[in-house]
Amino acid sequence: MIPDNILNYFKNLDPVSVALGVGIGAILDYIVSLIFSPKGSGQINPGIDKSSAKVATMCPLKDIEDTVKKSDKGVVAYCRCWRSKKFPYCDGAHAAHNKKTGDNTGPLVIKK
Ligand code: FES
Fold first, then answer.
1. Mutate to test the pocket of ligand 1, among 76, 90, 104 (most ligand atoms within 8 A of CB)
2. How far lies 109's CA from each of 7, 29, 44, 89, 90, in Å?
3. What is the per-residue pLDDT across 59-71, written as a single tens digit (0 to 9) for each?
């Protein structure tokens, strides 16, 4: 049972003041989260070439064509989940990542 004095307190609240309070609280929460979020949270790359400022892979078209031609299946798969031990090539690690996280990542597959 809720005491009457508490019920009366909530009945007498001004809806505009409550909305302003909630809005200001949400904005402050957002600002605090920006300031105190640890650097690196939200990173997609868990461990590939972390000493580099940026991981950019240059693949000349001729090399891609040669790799596809040499492939048994006539395809080459490039990793887009950043979990492959053979990066930039896909090694199937995306399957474990997807199972663990519910994500739906997969490779870029180049075929003849
Ligand atoms: Fe990364 Fe397959 S291992 S997409």
1. 90
2. 63, 42, 20, 10, 9
3. 899 999 999 999 9
